[in-house]
Design brief:
The protein is mainly alpha-helical. It has a domain of 67 residues. The protein has 2 helices and no strands. The longest helix has 66 residues. The radius of gyration is 39 Å and the shape is rod-shaped.
């Protein structure tokens, strides 16, 4: 083997080692990113679970509010509305005079 061949072989050896080192760093980075992705997916699932729980709670509260409106409140509201309609009718009658 000539000196030129030995030099080329040494350069090739260095470049292969650099390439292997780069490959190892990239594998490590991929592993870190995969771990990060798993963590974020877990956080996303937890957030979605919380949203579902809050939506269910909101629905329950709305249902409870509708049920809590009892007949007395409805009758009272109708009476107030009728009184307001009568007052408006009186005002219109006074304007027409």
């Amino acid at each position: 083997m000539t000196e030129d061949h030995k030099r080329l072989l040494a350069v090739f050896d260095v470049r292969v080692r650099d390439l292997m080192e780069l490959c190892d760093r990239q594998k490590q980075k991929i592993n870190e990113l995969e771990d990060f992705l798993v963590q974020k997916e877990g956080e996303l699932q937890q957030a979605m679970k919380t949203i579902e729980e809050l939506n269910a709670k909101c629905d329950n509260m709305l249902t409870a509010r509708v049920v809590s409106v009892n007949e007395g409140e409805m009758k009272s509201a109708r009476m107030r509305l009728s009184k307001l309609v009568r007052e408006v009718d009186k005002c219109i009658a006074l304007l027409n005079e």
